[in-house]
Fold each of these.
Amino acid sequence: MPNTNKKENEKKDVNKNVEEVKGELTYENKVIQKIIGFSLENISGLLAVDGGFFSNLTDKLINTDNVTSGVNVEVGKEQVAVDLNIIVEYKKNVPELYQEIKKVITNDISNITDLEVVEVNVNVVDIKTKEQHEADSVSLQDRVTNAVESTGEFASEKFEAAKTGISEGFSTAKEKVEDGIEAVKDKANDDDKEDEKASKSKEKKRVQ
């Protein structure tokens, strides 16, 4: 029994010491935005958060490291305010959807961060059928893919041109060096001949 009481007292002392440690816990806006994105992922009738949190075909999160234009948050030390721009599925009850959005956002942010959600403002920017939304998404995806492919081809062409230019430049430089070497050799031969003539001339003068 004495040992048990001792351990309990030590535990209380540790907890007391931790509480006395100074500091604060803060969250970047991006963290709260990502929590909201995950919270909204499976809400029926919500086609997308305008700005790109959802992949339009699979309803999965994409580019979660990017701050999107469709989710704006104001984060304080204890409270959070949220503004959303959303695209809603046609024939879905929008007020009920709004209540569901508020519920999941409030619960998840509270459970994960202990922050209090004081506002959730939702602006419906568009309403579409699911088929129309998927068709629009495919068109957008095609445009992005084509742009990436075009950029890749352009970069490849520039690389080949640069490589060819370097190769041609090296060949030209090599030819110039070789020409220079030949010129030096020719000059050296001419000098040798002149020296030989001069030497013979001197010999003649000495014997005269």
Note: The longest strand covers residues 116-128.
Amino acid sequence: MTAPVDDEGFVLRIRGLPWSTTKEEILNFFTAKECHIKGGINGVHMTLSREGRPSGEAYIELESEQDMEIGLQRHNEHIGHRYIEVFKSKRSEMDWVVKRSGAHQQDSLNDGCVRLRGLPFGCSKEEIAQFFSGLEIVPNGITLPTDYQGRSTGEAFVQFATRDIAEKAMGKHKEKIGHRYIEIFKSSLQEVRSAVRMGVPKMMRPMGGARPGPYDRADRFGGGPSRYGMG
């Protein structure tokens, strides 16, 4: 069956995806029930949150109205341990959401990043690498952001070679570096860049009795280290 005259196509929106879900898993979720996705994997469009993290939603382009009806029958079926909600949508909505999500600007869904919180004072990149011993980290993949005074925030970002390795790294949540329990959260390259931008290079800080600049107020970033917390 051809697309409707208004060219809105046959589109479904799905919600409730696990963070680690891949396009291949979504494709298999539908094709297992003879639901044909237009263009195969290219017909699966995963969206991002404003922070660049997976939103848990995706849009699916289907070949016909019959495929859309079959796809709707997958409502409340599982991917992994999550119930997946399936809704009717349209091409104009899909295009608008996907464009705004930044999915065409970077593939944050596959960047394999995590955020660490609660690091001991003076914790080095070498100690973090040792903490994740056996899990491959990309070259220059450890970032230690600083606050506006150049001090450690007690956090770090680590980018692993694959998303699967990042998932394994999440299993070290609440393990120790030194005497500190380390919290681990899912993250993205966009969040890393945002955290790094919040720190101010030393050359931008006033010397001696120089007039304070806009970055020198103690409350400029809401109290320093807590600015990076996720609550």
Note: The chain is about 25% helix and 25% strand.
